[in-house]
Amino acid sequence: MKVDTSVLGLSPEQAVEQPFIASMGIYVFKREALIKLLRENPDQTDFGKEIIPNSARDYNVQAYLFDGYWEDIGTIEAFYEANMALTIQPTPPFSFYHEDAPIYTRSRYLPPTKLLDCQITQSSVAEGCLLKNCRINHSVIGLRQRVQADCVIEDSLLMGADFYEPLSESSRHLTRGKVPMGIGEGSIVRRAIVDKNARIGRNVQIVNKEGIEEAEREDLGFYIRSGIVVVLKNAVIPDGMVI
Length: 243
What we know:
Layout (H helix, E strand, L loop, with lengths): L11 H6 L13 H10 L6 H9 L20 H10 L28 E3 L2 E3 L2 E2 L4 E3 L2 E3 L2 E2 L4 E2 L4 E3 L2 E2 L8 H9 L6 E2 L4 E3 L1 E3 L4 E2 L4 E2 L8 E3 L4 E4 L2 E4 L4 E2 L6
């Protein structure tokens, strides 16, 4: 919404540079007021479009001007770009490392990530990963992710896994022609999002080789949005497949 943002406290110069406002979807109510509004208007279900605008006539509704880091991740492309931005050096748009603004999360008590002869540049790697003789550049690697030897991961978001698959079970999968958890040996992943618990086989290429912008391939374990390949959660991509 384009408005005169000087009424929100910005200087005239700032208002020219920042004329748009957006709802962050963060609302604070007094408990009694919220219960009353919901009971009196059972047909209203959306805060930003219905409840707040309609309550402004009878209640003291105020907006807080937030000018810190905020991104709308309502699309696959926006979600992808927001994650990739965290790898920008030396000053990403958002930092996890400010002492005066700590990030709180649930403790998982995972082991540290294990790197075996890996080349990793401009990337963020979560805890509990097993990365073996691979090359990773400009990527975000999630919890418990396994990447086998001779893999190349570039410009990608690997969301990791919800659990560890025992190494003995992974070995049995290989001997039986099945695909273990993680990224298989010799595979290439570029400009992609790989959701949790995905099983990527050996010598797979996830590179959008035909430059497709939009595609529905859920039956094969993936789809494409804005040129970004998205491998579905729990998907199995067989050995040698080229996307």
